[in-house]
């Protein structure tokens, strides 16, 4: 029987186990988006994961979602990320950069740019900015030509990621950000080739995947999805058909993996797994679901067809998570007050389990 501790061939990488560290925003980058030495230590501490996927990293200044999130749109960012990738590789780990464009989930006070989106549909929400919580503005509508510019921004960021030493990149197509805004039936009210029918609504995601695969090689690229997920007020009509059509369109590109959040019934995810010809990662906890991913949930999904399983919150307070799962050691609970921003407290001071 397959075990989460078995090695796996993921695209062009041999990973040491099937445990993935899920992307988690921690807001510890410098004000200009450059990764810090503390970030290098944080990821290196967790390098026993088969694969680390970094926190959300903006491919352009306009794509920034929150203060102190890292970027991959300048030479300075590339140089600063090298300390992170070198530290992870020195500890035997593998690491992908997650590329996230916030779309409408942004504010001029955060990014210095007015947010853009498929349509002029604002969030009914307040966003955390350097000046505190502020209402989300109505986003600017991307023209057809500007949509192409966003596609190229993802490709350029992927090139920088490889230059910075990353083993690959993950496209954030989940959790209510720009790619999922195009997939949605409420945030996307377009009538051009990027809206309307399911074929139109998946077009942006497919074009981004194609461009990034062309830029760095398909076997260095994954995509994260949250079928039916409702984070940031996303609504998706006919979820099974939408995602089966997306999977069918992505399959010929040859991406290394699909990373699916468990945001819909298991049978829908299992059907997507069966339709997808490459590696399939499941994040059982969804987006801040009621349960942390644990060993039993991981074993369930491996038995249901997943190739790898990602763990999110458990990795905050358990840098040695692989060993704790292997030995059955208890998991430390993290302090939610230190999840986002702040000092190294609640970031670097969680220790390995002492028997």
Automatic annotation (TrEMBL):
What keywords appear on the UniProt entry? Oxidoreductase
- Membrane-crossing segments per the record: none
* GO MF annotations, alphabetized: FMN binding; oxidoreductase activity, acting on the CH-CH group of donors, NAD or NADP as acceptor
The keyword Metal-binding appears for this protein? no
Q: In this record, what's one Pfam family?
A: Oxidored_FMN
- Give the required cofactors: FMN
| Ranges where the NADH:flavin oxidoreductase/NADH oxidase N-terminal domain occurs | 4-330
CDD domains on file:
OYE_like_FMN
- Name the source's superkingdom: Bacteria
Question: GO terms for CC?
Answer: cytosol
Q: Which PANTHER family match?
A: NADH OXIDOREDUCTASE-RELATED, NADPH DEHYDROGENASE 2-RELATED
What family does this chain come from, according to its entry? Belongs to the NADH:flavin oxidoreductase/NADH oxidase family.
Q: What is this protein called?
A: Alkene reductase
Native source species: Catellatospora citrea
């Amino acid at each position: 029987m397959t075990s989460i501790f078995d090695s796996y061939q993921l695209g062009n990488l041999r990973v040491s186990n099937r445990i993935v560290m899920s992307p988690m925003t921690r807001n510890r980058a410098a004000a200009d988006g450059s990764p810090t030495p503390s970030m290098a230590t944080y990821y290196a501490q967790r390098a026993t994961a088969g694969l680390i996927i970094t926190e959300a990293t903006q491919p352009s200044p306009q794509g920034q979602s929150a203060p102190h999130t890292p970027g991959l749109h300048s030479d300075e960012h590339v140089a600063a990320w090298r300390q992170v990738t070198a530290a992870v590789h020195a500890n035997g780990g593998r690491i992908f950069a997650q590329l996230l464009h916030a779309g409408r989930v942004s504010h001029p006070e955060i990014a210095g740019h007015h947010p853009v989106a498929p349509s002029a549909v604002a969030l009914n929400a307040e966003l955390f900015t350097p000046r505190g919580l502020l209402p989300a503005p109505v986003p600017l509508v991307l023209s057809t030509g500007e949509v192409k510019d966003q596609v190229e921004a993802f490709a350029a960021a992927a090139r920088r990621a490889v230059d910075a030493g990353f083993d690959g990149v993950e496209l954030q197509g989940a959790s209510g950000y720009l790619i999922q805004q195009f997939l949605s039936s409420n945030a996307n009210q377009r009538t051009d080739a990027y809206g309307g029918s399911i074929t139109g609504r998946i077009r942006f995601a497919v074009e981004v995947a194609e461009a990034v695969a062309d830029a760095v090689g398909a076997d260095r690229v994954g995509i994260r999805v949250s079928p039916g997920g409702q984070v940031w007020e996303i609504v998706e009509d006919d979820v099974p058909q939408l995602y089966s059509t997306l999977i069918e369109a992505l399959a010929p590109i040859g991406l290394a993996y699909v990373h699916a959040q468990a945001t819909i019934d298991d049978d829908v995810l299992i059907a997507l797994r069966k339709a997808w010809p490459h590696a399939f990662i499941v994040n059982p906890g969804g987006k801040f679901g009621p349960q942390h991913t644990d060993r039993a949930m991981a074993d369930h999904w491996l038995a249901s067809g997943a190739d790898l399983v990602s763990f999110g919150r458990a990795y905050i307070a358990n840098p040695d998570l692989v060993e704790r799962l292997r030995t059955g050691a208890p998991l430390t609970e993290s302090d939610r007050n230190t999840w986002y921003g702040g000092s190294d407290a609640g970031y670097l001071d969680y220790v390995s389990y002492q028997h």
